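Loading example: each entry is read as four labelled lines plus one structure line.
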Amino acid sequence: MSITIKDVARQAGVSIATVSRIVNGQKGYGEKTKERVLKTIEELGYTPNAIARGLVGRETKSIGVLLPKLSGLFASKLLEGMEETARNEGYSLFVCHTDSKEDRAIQDLQVLKEKQVDGIIYASDQLSESQGQMLNSMVCPAVFVSTQSLTHPFPYVKVDDYQAACTGTRYLIEKGHKQIAFIGGSLEDPIAGKPRDEGFRRTMKDHHLKVEESLTAYGDFRFQSGKESFKNILKAEKPFTAVFAVSDEMAAGVLSAAYEQGISVPDDISVLGYDNTMAAEMAIPPLTTMAQPLEEMGQKAVELILSLRENKENINKNEIVKHRLIERKSVLERSKTKGLFL
Amino acid sequence: MSITIKDVARQAGVSIATVSRIVNGQKGYGEKTKERVLKTIEELGYTPNAIARGLVGRETKSIGVLLPKLSGLFASKLLEGMEETARNEGYSLFVCHTDSKEDRAIQDLQVLKEKQVDGIIYASDQLSESQGQMLNSMVCPAVFVSTQSLTHPFPYVKVDDYQAACTGTRYLIEKGHKQIAFIGGSLEDPIAGKPRDEGFRRTMKDHHLKVEESLTAYGDFRFQSGKESFKNILKAEKPFTAVFAVSDEMAAGVLSAAYEQGISVPDDISVLGYDNTMAAEMAIPPLTTMAQPLEEMGQKAVELILSLRENKENINKNEIVKHRLIERKSVLERSKTKGLFL
DNA sequence: TCCTTTTACGTAAACGTTTACTCTTTTTAA
DNA sequence: TTAAAAAGAGTAAACGTTTACGTAAAAGGA
């Protein structure tokens, strides 16, 4: 069907080896030959076949990405960072939506293995035991982004969630808040759930503040769960002046629930988010939030993959990226907010 | 390095042809041989090499997707629909972020061609002349989703934007609104920009309503442009009671600008969005919006690709999917809204 | 000048599959 | 029983590259 290197070779009256060398910018041919071949390539509209290349060269210039959720601002921002870097390095991205389902992820890993990807990026989800085993059995490097695994020590790039939660909580406290509600991720999640909870509790304790259990709730980082969590917190009718939700989507959920109940943010209560996705920008009021540098993380993840491909020796390639508090409009000083159930 | 079909064959004492047949579920071997080979495969942990398969079978089970923007709810919802269907059919997705840049898209197309994808999905952006030529020169089928091209008639799946804009406008009019502001996409965009504008104007005219030009503005479908467009509209100080923004992100932008100006939605003005992404759900108030069935569109797009691969003959494969108005809280009847500058 | 090195190529093997042909052996049908 | 058909298996070519190796001619050095 399509034009191959053989066609070019025949047409230009040279061997395929010469064409190959010219195409790949190696040396071993004269200037005139080069021009003739290049012209033939142009005329015939020859495009090298990356599949054939991949077979002999044993690299495919493609990277597999596993994401629990594709829709959602978190994933897309991460993905954008990866795409940009991958593209610049000549790589393409296979993106897979695991939906946090064990079997889907396994299937994805299997497919990526068959497709001989040069690396795998496992993003923002917990790794199960069997997934870890699959990852280990792969010949290509794997890295985590915005997650990690205690049992399977692949390199990761993430923020220090514990510290970030501390920073966020401290920020609220410094603004004068003492009665703070908390909406976390699942405590069963040892990576993104537990540490943020611990950071929150630790910081409260360090400031001799009590965390009222009925002011805590745990969701799945998504909008709806934030909304419901906040409604539950409201039911307790315990006094509070601020709420820390550990994802912007959940924070948007509290904004939404608050709006339904006629509670004003930030006049009645302050709300602090986490992630700094577009949800934070678009929210009303715009969310003050603990930023994760998601594009940068995506970028670092593919850079990490690439560097692992070169130096097989790679102890301690982990990257802790810096979190940063972005002030917008959803948090006010204690003195300026009314509070609820006081 | 890794285990190949040869290793399996040798170990099991059969030829590679037999292993191949067994792996691919063809026939031509005995039950006992099959079991022995399967056991060997298990023991050795053999995984077929899709690259080699792709070379001989001339299909790669992968599809390239070109999106102007990865971050953003629109793209991610579309992508989720595609991924689901692709996965079920055994395909993987290469996703590319063109950023609406001519050269990036060309580069992407080139790479996808080299990687021998089985199909290309071009999403939600205008096709340039040279991109169209590249698409034509590809051996694999290409389809549009949420866009189309007048000069390059590839099959597409999209809503009828003109009709959808009509429906949206009519909805507002039926609610009693007469002075309606409009925030459209670029009029230079003959696919997603112009038709919505025309639908709006036509419907206004059909109802003997005047469109006040200073109440119209044109953005790029993104949040910021919606925000700025609305601020410009405000500057005109012309009376209006509702605004129709042709993307949820832009509608969220008007919500945001309105909030900043102390304008209440929906008490002062009604706002109608377009797309029905999560932005509409999360907005405050939740947006009434013209829904595009994005997952379904993603699904249809890959189905279309797949069907094009079988029947080479494919006249009129276009799919117009149904738009639908989703009522939430951002539009009120005229009698219940105060309006601005009256 | 002659020998050595470099340059400019061509040949052919390899990469891991699938598949069209073979060739036996077994089963089926008459 | 026997011819025909089916089943079970192997051989080898092909897919489109890259690359190690070989070789002849050109260039360089003394």
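The longest strand of chain B covers residues 62-67.
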